[in-house]
Amino acid sequence: MEKDLSQNNNLSAKGVYDWKLVQRALKKGDQKAYAELMGRYKDTIFFMLLKMIRDKDDADDLTIEAFGKAFRNLHQYTPDYAFSTWLFKIATNNCIDFIRRKKEAVSLDRTYETADGNEISYEPKSEFLNPEEKAIKKQKIQLMQSVVEKMQPRYRALVELRYFQEKSYEEIAKELDLPIGTVKAQLFRARELLYHTLKHMQGKI
Q1: Which of 17, 42, 84, 157 has its CA 20 to 30 A from that of 177?
Q2: Does 163 lie in the same domain as 100?
Q3: One-character DSSP codes across 11-75
């Protein structure tokens, strides 16, 4: 298949090389292939997202999330178009969802259309919830906290500092005496663990 792919007019030489990396990642679980794919596009994705949201920390988070989503769904990529095109679409859609979530905080009556065409409305803050809704929201928070508490100490500390205390990468690195690169890498791993744990528990949430 890879030999035939070199004749594919839809892909440049760069696109063919990306496809070969994807195949190595999927078929052999080659971590170097995953790392190379990330290295080839991480900066470009980051600066694209930074233009969209104008916040360095959020752009960092969204860049890592985009690669996480892409790698989880790598089996869905086909060489009908460039890997970079597919990756940029994932990153852009994820960023648009993020922007929508932020806008919801100041728009109580606005509805949004999901990818499948359904409309969703803003879920108001606790003070606007009825007793039943407050109880459900409290259960969700407690479940999330219980999941975080069961994580390894290093991951738990990172999640609590980043998402509960809303500290920047620099503040976390200083508090834990770790390089910023290590903080980002371990937060990526922590998010992956949370994602898989909550995915199995989604019937409870």
Answers
A1: 42
A2: no
A3: S-HHHHHHHHHHHHHHHH--HHHHHHHHHHHHHHHHHHHHHHH--HHHHHHHHHHHHHHHHHTGG
Compute the distance between CA of residue 172 and CA of residue 192 in angstroms, rounded to an integer: 19
Please indicate, yes or no, if residue 119 is contained in any of the structural domains.
no
Return the CATH number at 89. Answer: 1.10.1740.10
**Residues 94 and 181 both lie in one domain:** no
* CA proximity to 19, closest of 9, 5, 29: 5
Query: Reduced to 3 states, what is the DSSP secondary structure of residue 8?
Result: coil
| Rg (alpha carbons) of the chain, rounded to whole number | 20
Domain that holds residue 24: 2-104
Higher pLDDT, 134 or 79: 79
- Same domain, yes or no: 99 and 130: no
pLDDT digits (tens, 9 = 90+) for 48-74: 998 888 888 888 888 988 998 899 899
Structural domain count, the chain: 2
Query: How many residues are recorded in the chain?
Result: 205
What pLDDT was estimated at residue 183? 85
